[in-house]
């Protein structure tokens, strides 16, 4: 039987200036805050009682690296952490076994337990590039999901209807298009919602594609007699192509562990329009400062200056101010056709007849294979001593050459 939920407060707590400021920080860049009034009262209660709120973000370790798209919610989590609240970084090692169906038109293929463990360790280390480790509660949902067992899973499934589940956009679309939906996919939102019950969270964060799952947490907390969490959704960061959300599978991403030069150059590669969509989500500048900068650009200031500022800020965050300055200078050198000062030095054996350009690219680490090297040559992306190479049969004789692939890969190759 459904139990009545605990109340957010027995009587309204005063909305102080600090509470209003916390609400502004919460709302910055967000898509939706549901229900906003409840969250304001939770903040007011925390201010009045000194009891920090519990704020949860769950990520499934489906890939080995975190990219800038993930940091949109991580940044928000850090902002709330800096307000003094308890931040829970939840690694969905159990739910990854199912695979999140959010926004998908096919069933997600499962990962092995070994892949999940390896990815989870990487997620933990990379998340701490944004979050304060000593102020973060790190949890794994296998802690409670493993203990549910068959009986607990059936009881959990009884707390939601198939009709309500089919209201979910992706399930609804797949059903009416004739695409298959596996029964185990219905368990995913239930288990994500159960995470909120286990952690007694006050607020859960996620991308806009997670709204259904976040609201499931509210529903299940009510079913378990808890005060329901609020749900905060953040926009999905559009990738480098300016079209699709940032995704490693689409190749339109910036990994937060990429070297400083690559990170800086990738930020500068985005369009001016996309830059203004990135600024409120990725920059820690005040909104007033961003609006002032945008007005200056509209009045005639070179938009590249604003883009350089964003590239410098992001590169500094994940590397250092010194690395960002060096990356900026490296970009300037390359844009002028110059060769970076710090490039790989490679020694290769050429033999009496020389070494084919495809093997040079592969053995110097500029291409993963000779077939990929040939593809790069066909695309005009390979240079030797600044000259574009079009002959895949070219052989380099003994000597030293600066070999370049694309705009950012260089090697000084010495053939003996």
TrEMBL record:
<dbReference type="InterPro" id="IPR014729">
    <property type="entry name" value="Rossmann-like_a/b/a_fold"/>
</dbReference>
<dbReference type="InterPro" id="IPR001412">
    <property type="entry name" value="aa-tRNA-synth_I_CS"/>
</dbReference>
<dbReference type="InterPro" id="IPR002305">
    <property type="entry name" value="aa-tRNA-synth_Ic"/>
</dbReference>
<dbReference type="Pfam" id="PF01479">
    <property type="entry name" value="S4"/>
</dbReference>
<keyword id="KW-0547">Nucleotide-binding</keyword>
<keyword id="KW-0067">ATP-binding</keyword>
<keyword id="KW-0436">Ligase</keyword>
<feature type="short sequence motif" description="'KMSKS' region">
    <location>
        <begin position="245"/>
        <end position="249"/>
    </location>
</feature>
<dbReference type="InterPro" id="IPR024088">
    <property type="entry name" value="Tyr-tRNA-ligase_bac-type"/>
</dbReference>
<dbReference type="GO" id="GO:0006437">
    <property type="term" value="P:tyrosyl-tRNA aminoacylation"/>
</dbReference>
<comment type="function">
    <text>Catalyzes the attachment of tyrosine to tRNA(Tyr) in a two-step reaction: tyrosine is first activated by ATP to form Tyr-AMP and then transferred to the acceptor end of tRNA(Tyr).</text>
</comment>
<comment type="similarity">
    <text>Belongs to the class-I aminoacyl-tRNA synthetase family. TyrS type 2 subfamily.</text>
</comment>
<dbReference type="GO" id="GO:0003723">
    <property type="term" value="F:RNA binding"/>
</dbReference>
<dbReference type="Pfam" id="PF00579">
    <property type="entry name" value="tRNA-synt_1b"/>
</dbReference>
<keyword id="KW-0963">Cytoplasm</keyword>
<dbReference type="GO" id="GO:0005829">
    <property type="term" value="C:cytosol"/>
</dbReference>
<protein>
    <recommendedName>
        <fullName>Tyrosine--tRNA ligase</fullName>
        <ecNumber>6.1.1.1</ecNumber>
    </recommendedName>
</protein>
<comment type="subunit">
    <text>Homodimer.</text>
</comment>
<dbReference type="InterPro" id="IPR002307">
    <property type="entry name" value="Tyr-tRNA-ligase"/>
</dbReference>
<feature type="domain" description="RNA-binding S4">
    <location>
        <begin position="355"/>
        <end position="416"/>
    </location>
</feature>
<dbReference type="InterPro" id="IPR002942">
    <property type="entry name" value="S4_RNA-bd"/>
</dbReference>
<feature type="binding site">
    <location>
        <position position="248"/>
    </location>
    <ligand>
        <name>ATP</name>
    </ligand>
</feature>
<dbReference type="InterPro" id="IPR024108">
    <property type="entry name" value="Tyr-tRNA-ligase_bac_2"/>
</dbReference>
<feature type="short sequence motif" description="'HIGH' region">
    <location>
        <begin position="61"/>
        <end position="70"/>
    </location>
</feature>
<dbReference type="GO" id="GO:0005524">
    <property type="term" value="F:ATP binding"/>
</dbReference>
<keyword id="KW-0648">Protein biosynthesis</keyword>
<dbReference type="GO" id="GO:0004831">
    <property type="term" value="F:tyrosine-tRNA ligase activity"/>
</dbReference>
<keyword id="KW-0030">Aminoacyl-tRNA synthetase</keyword>
<dbReference type="InterPro" id="IPR036986">
    <property type="entry name" value="S4_RNA-bd_sf"/>
</dbReference>
<keyword id="KW-0694">RNA-binding</keyword>
């Amino acid at each position: 039987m459904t139990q009545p939920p605990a109340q957010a407060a027995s009587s309204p707590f005063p909305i102080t200036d600090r509470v209003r400021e916390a609400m502004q920080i919460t709302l910055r860049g967000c898509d939706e805050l549901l229900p906003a009034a409840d969250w304001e009262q939770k903040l007011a209660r925390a201010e009045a009682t000194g009891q920090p709120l519990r704020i949860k973000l769950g990520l499934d370790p489906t890939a080995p690296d975190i990219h800038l798209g993930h940091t949109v919610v991580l940044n928000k989590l850090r902002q709330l952490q800096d307000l003094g609240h308890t931040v829970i970084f939840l690694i969905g090692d159990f739910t990854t076994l199912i695979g999140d169906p959010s926004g998908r038109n096919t069933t997600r293929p499962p990962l092995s337990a070994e892949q999940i463990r390896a990815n989870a360790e990487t997620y933990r280390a990379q998340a701490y590039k944004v979050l304060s480790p000593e102020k973060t509660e790190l949890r794994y949902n296998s802690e409670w999901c493993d203990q549910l067992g068959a009986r607990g899973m059936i009881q959990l499934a009884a707390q939601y209807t198939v009709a309500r589940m089919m209201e979910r956009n992706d399930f609804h679309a797949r059903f009416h298009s004739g695409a298959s939906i596996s029964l185990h996919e219905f368990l995913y939102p239930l288990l994500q919602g159960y995470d909120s019950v286990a952690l007694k969270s006050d607020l859960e964060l996620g991308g806009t594609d997670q709204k259904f799952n976040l609201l499931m947490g509210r529903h299940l907390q009510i079913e378990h007699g808890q005060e329901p969490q609020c749900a905060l959704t953040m926009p999905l960061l559009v990738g480098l192509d300016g079209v699709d959300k940032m995704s490693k599978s689409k190749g339109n991403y910036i990994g937060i562990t990429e070297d400083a030069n690559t990170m800086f150059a990738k930020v500068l590669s985005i369009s001016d329009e996309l830059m203004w969509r990135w600024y409120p989500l990725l920059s820690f500048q005040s909104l007033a400062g961003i609006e002032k900068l945008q007005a200056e650009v509209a009045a005639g200031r070179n938009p590249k200056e604003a883009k350089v500022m964003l590239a410098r800020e992001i590169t500094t965050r994940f590397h250092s101010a010194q690395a960002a300055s060096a990356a900026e200078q490296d970009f300037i050198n390359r844009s002028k056709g110059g060769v970076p000062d710090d490039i790989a030095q490679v020694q290769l054996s050429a033999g009496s007849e020389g070494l084919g350009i495809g093997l040079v690219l592969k053995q110097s680490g500029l291409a993963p294979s000779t077939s990929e090297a040939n593809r790069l040559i066909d695309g005009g992306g390979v240079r030797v001593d600044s000259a574009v190479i079009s002959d895949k049969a070219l052989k380099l004789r003994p000597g030293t050459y600066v070999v370049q692939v694309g705009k950012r890969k260089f090697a000084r190759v010495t053939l003996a």
